[in-house]
Amino acid sequence: MQTLTDGSIRALTVLNNRHAPVRYDYRLELTADTTPIQTGDGSISLRDRNGTSKGWIAPAWAVDANGAPVKTHYEVNGNVIAQIVEHTGQHVAYPVIADPRVYYAWWQLFNWSEWHWNSAYGMNQLSIELSIWGRHDLVFNAGQFLTSGWNLLKEKHSWWMFTDSMRQQWECHVLGGIAEPGTFDLEYERRSVPDWRSRIGRVWPPQDTCNW
Asked: What are phi and psi of 149, to 5 degrees?
């Protein structure tokens, strides 16, 4: 799985020949009150018991090596979404690519984030705790998470509340790889330091690299 810049999660599947399976299961890590619901257009809506949208899975698609569409659809069983790729018995050029894409809500990458006053620094800060997905992307897909995570935070807390310095601190924690396990803070009143990368390896202790 990979987080893309639009905040979606992709699960690229490659079918190399006619002996490849037809069914591909994907288990979603959902909250207890969230249910996948199939819609008439082939997509899947993720909704809680109140009907509130918690995410969306785009309609299934698959193409062969020539770019021709291959018949495909979803089946839902609890939190397991199966993509059925009907490549057998058809004239297809291998490999066949199937790419289910999940658009998660903010909660999928973050357990929580909140503004509060830091009396030690004398400034406001946005404190963040990453979810399991967020921690995974921080390590394995940092470049994508850099944009997708930032955009989701701005949607959650209003884009106008974010400063150039906060973006620099975010980049430092994500790309610098020095964030506390799953958590870090972005201070609102810190000065802008566009060349923050020059601090990596020169600041001691290392956890202070993003706190200029």
From this structure: -65, -40
Q: Which residue is associated with the tokens 């770019």?
A: 67
Residues ≥6 apart with Cβ < 8 Å to 77: none
Tokens 């690229």 label which residue? Answer: 12
State how far the Cα of 97 lies from the Cα of 85, in Å rounded to an integer: 10
Query: Among 112, 127, 98, 88, which Cα is nearest to 11's?
Result: 98
Return the half-sphere exposure (C-beta side, CA atoms, 13 A cut-off) of residue 37. Answer: 15
Cα separation, 191 vs 31, in Å, equals 38
User: Would you state the pLDDT for residue 7?
Assistant: 52
pLDDT score recorded for residue 194: 95
From the CA atom positions of the chain, what is the Rg in Å?
A: 21
Q: What phi-psi label fits residue 9: left (phi over 0), alpha (psi between -120 and 50 degrees) or beta? A: beta
Nearest-angstrom CA–CA distance, 124 and 178 = 21
Residues 57 and 108: their CA atoms lie apart, in Å, by: 14
pTM score = 0.57
What pLDDT is recorded for position 5? 52
What pLDDT is stored for residue 122 in this prediction?
Answer: 94
Q: What does the pLDDT look like over 184-196, one tens digit per residue? A: 999 999 999 999 9
CB 187 within 8 A of CB 124: yes
Q: How many whole angstroms separate alpha carbon 203 and alpha carbon 146?
A: 22
Among 3, 94, 92, 81, residue whose Cα is nearest residue 39? 81
